[in-house]
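subagent[fold] <- orchestrator: predict structure for attached chain, return tokens only, no commentary.
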Amino acid sequence: MSAYENEISPDDWLVSDMNANADDDPEVFERKLRKKYDKVKSDTSSIDGLSIKTPDWATVISTKKREKSRAVSFDLSLKKSELVLTAGTPTGTRFILGKKAVPSDVEEYRTFLEGLMNWSDSDHPLVTEADFKDWSKKNPKKPEKPTVYKTYDEMVKKSKADAEAFRNWAKTNAAGKKALDELTKTDKLKPADPARAKALKAADAVLPAYYKTF
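subagent[fold] -> orchestrator:
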């Protein structure tokens, strides 16, 4: 499975100083941070399993001052092993506010990505529809396991769809194609006819190989 990675720093999650050349009053800036934090928390509340904690505002503000930044951003990063929400100076120190481990099973990961796609929008494009489709092409769904039949004859009698799927597979397999040719040649013969019985037995012999493809 290939992991999808991306990071967003939405404009509406950014808190900037009023003056581009001076720090805001710490109390004023903290009020702005708290208000923005409430918005970020609300925006991400529908992301299942992402538990968010309030940062130490004094530490965030002092770090901003030390790093001579004029803003604090809230970023959401999707990495190979986790989804992480952070706050801090845009190009400097980041403080983790919440994180969630991503599934390792490919189908669970698919559901996880699809959920993030449904959450994403033009302002928060963490996983766009195009991104999800591209990932899905690289990681196609495995076909559902078919019903296991003891014989080809039993398959034909119980499920036309399963029999058709088997025949389509047989066309791509040397032994399967040979068995399929014999079945076609003896199709109008009675089951008890030696030639038909031999063809059915040959089809039965390749069934295990067919089931191994799932």
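orchestrator: received. Logging for downstream: The longest helix spans residues 26-43. The chain has two domains: 6-138, 152-211.
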